[in-house]
Amino acid sequence: MDLFKSSKKAEPLSLEWMEVDMHSHLIPGIDDGAKTLKESVDLIKRLQAFGLRKLITTPHVMTEFYKNTPEIISEGLYKLQEALQKENVQMDIEAAAEYYLDEIFVEKLQNDEPLLTFGDNYILVETGFMNKPHMLLETFFALETKGYKPILAHPERYLYLQQDPEMLESLIEKGIYFQVNLLSFTGYYSKPIKAMADKLLERRLVRFVGTDCHNARYLDALERLSSLKSYETLKASKFMNSLL
Fold first, then answer.
1. Are the beta carbons of 182 and 206 closer than 8 angstroms?
2. CATH superfamily of this structure's domain 20-243
3. What is the pTM of this model?
4. What Cα–Cα distance (Å) separates residue 221 from each residue in 16, 28, 175?
5. What are the sequence ranges of the domains in the chain?
């Protein structure tokens, strides 16, 4: 029997059990997320209506596409907080980043350049979806040596982990934190990604969950989550989001 198969009538989505969303793209105009302040505020209102009490938004930092710096992100966060205040939206919002693991990132790490973290020195990182990055495990080790606690964003979406169980087990053995996108459980990305997310949840390997919200389409799709059996498992799970 598929424990995660959709089998009940949808109820209104509540994310009160999650408390804190630590993966989203809500600062407008600096990556592939929200485009305008109005769009950002509208998205945050919807996230608040789902029952979230805090947002840690994480703009992309990618050498080729999104050359964001702590200064750019801090300035964007300040403008967003001002807009929320004008709209009387009482939402606790902070900013970190979602770092793409490449050679430039490793150089920043080696040169002790400031990196944006949250909570207990957690740092959210991602890789390319198709191929395993060169020196992946070594980069995680370097992060930990510098005192960071790396969280691998959406491991269920990486084809190289789906195809290489040994690499997945290596990450698990090294205690790398996994953050799974809630949308993955709905089949939003693909059936194989949903299957991978379900497997990680069933094995209790998910430490954090996030919306990875970019736009309204993401939240429209996310509302399907409450019709799934996995929704009950998610609500009953002890994630680390509430500690942030």
1. no
2. Metal-dependent hydrolases (3.20.20.140)
3. 0.94
4. 18, 21, 31
5. 20-243
